[in-house]
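Supplementary Note 3. Input sequence used for the single-chain structure prediction.
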Amino acid sequence: MKKIILSIDGMTCSACSNGLEKYLNKQKGISNATVNLVMANASIEYDEKLLNQKKIEEFVKEAGFKSLGEFKEIKIEEKNKKEKIKFIFFTILAIVLMYISMGHMINLPTIPFLDPHTNITNYMISLLVLTICFMIYGFDILKNGYKNLIHKTPNMDTLVSIGAITSLLYSIYNMYIVFTGDHTQIMNLYFESAAIVIYFIKLGRYIDGISKDKTKGAIQKLVKITPNTAVVKIDGIEKTVTLDEIHKGDIVISRAGEKIAVDGEIITGKAHLDESFITGESKPVSKQTGNKVIAGSMNYDGYIEYKAEKIGKESTISEIVRLVIEASNTKAPIAKIADKVSGYFVPSVMVIAIITFLVYLLIGQGFETAITSFVTVLVVACPCSLGLATPLAIVVSEGLCASNGILVKKSEILENAQKVNTIVFDKTGTLTYGKLKISDVLNYSNINNEKLLQLIGSIESKVTHPIGKAFTDYIEQNKMQILQVEEFENIVGYGIVGKIENEKFILGNAKILEKYEIDNNHLEDEKKLAENGNSIIYVVKDKKIIALIGVNDIVRENTKDVISILNKNKIQTIMLTGDNKETAEKIAKNIGITKVISNVIPSEKAKTIKELKQEKRYVMMCGDGINDSPALASSDIGVSVNSGTDIAMDSSDVILTKNDLKSIFNLIKISKKTIRNIKQNLFWAFFYNVLMIPIAIGLLKPIGISINPMIASGAMVFSSITVILNALRLRKIKF
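The predicted structure, written as discrete structure tokens, is reproduced below.
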């Protein structure tokens, strides 16, 4: 078997991608085809003995789309402002059309030259012209409905197309009758039915299309993590070059505040590098000669020279991009209730309508009665309420989610979140805040804690190290003044020294005690801080340790309660992190998570998610860093916290804008309520069809019950109102 990914042109909606996917999977020689609407590509596994790329591209063409060749790069289409203007324009046209066609029925003032009683010709032509405009606006729907019917995969577009075209043709027929002198047919024009059905479907697609390119943008942002240029050293001379000009073996220079350009190995110098976007580790990592560096890492405080080893597609970042694209092209089949039912419903209604038409002709009822009954059956089965049943409930639920700090980027999530039985959490930045904070202060001096932290923060303000930032953040949050520091000295690898108010303070790690030959009389306290996963800052004054400060990544507020709620609802929780085992297990035990998978790199995270899915689990992944992107894309549902990187947020399906992990359970609750509401909507949508189709056929005429297309259209509107009101009930969900 061979695999190829083709770029596809012409897909405008999920109906297009679903139709193409079904068509390709029917072809001999294709073992599996997955069409990705967002990426505008098709991933196809095929038997190269039976097929080649050219033949597969012919299949794509037969399905009504165009292959642009092998997928090589991500292209993001700029949002077209004309599309928004067009939608607003047709919204106004829809209002005008409804006013002209139905305003007089509810005693609204009529427009004199369009009055159906005094200016019949103007009235009919205006409705025809407006409806044709909507037909042009919805041509993609009509085309797709026709294609899916031809390929025996009828869907919602097929329903819309049949209903709209039939109403249009029947209205044109009655318009002709009026022109021949029979003015009684003026009330049997159903132009508005054809137009409004198209409008409602376009409304849903307009809403869905707003965030279509976010996944593409996320992957492009991954690439932009590396700097555009770098400094290389050639024969002792420094030269600034683009990344494309760097070759394997080149010596690249990185100074404090700069990003690492390519993967490589340090040959001289040392520095602290922030690799949290890859490893998930919140603390900066000390690097020196012989250590590896990863493209995109931030150099905090040192000067290093490193030899380029992995460039271009071989780099770690490129590997992450590949994993995200691969995960995006692998999707679990999602049951579309309305589409599945319509697969049987559409042909059934068509057969019933045709049989009705033929029977009336055979029993001698005449063509007009036959065609009227034919249209009545189709109109009463018009898919407006069926088309609203799922998307309207989804839209209401998305609004409810947004108002509760849950940003849902794909409507399918609200259908699927209720299936989740396993939630995998990244640690750093998800279960914890993701940045270093002061967690413990052991003060052995006569200086109060507030003054002590002000002194330390003032000295730490002279450096850019993340540990120092924990103190400067404290000063900023408590609105303290930074004191004047004299005789400041940065002792790389040890700590810092500074004098405030003529008193000298030494701050640093355990090595600084050795350097200044200071006795450590607080070994028990030191051990306790270390056991809790703290980085320890020793504060020395007058050759004595006056304080031990524990700096750590703090667990998010109410995390323990959230894990408890999930466990009680029989949802397994797992911690998946790049951090070390001891720190991870201690935090997990504290918050109630029993399963921990630690020391994992990004590709292993994605692999773990796939393994869980193979165990028939429905997996939600919650993360915040770039290192989580492949796992977020591989999971059934990816969730990121708002404080996470833009890439993680764009790679995910859901963003928790309030940074409250309880929102995860709220999402699952909303999903359950939404699914129940959708099923109710589908029931009401089909209830009217089941009830009205026999009447439309004329089976109840013997007992005096019959309807015409106008009444059938009214029943359709009533079913739509029922669906709308039921969907709006979702707004009342309480948390």
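DSSP finds 26 helices and 25 strands in the chain. Residues 227-314 form a domain with the Calcium-transporting ATPase, cytoplasmic transduction domain A fold (CATH 2.70.150.10).
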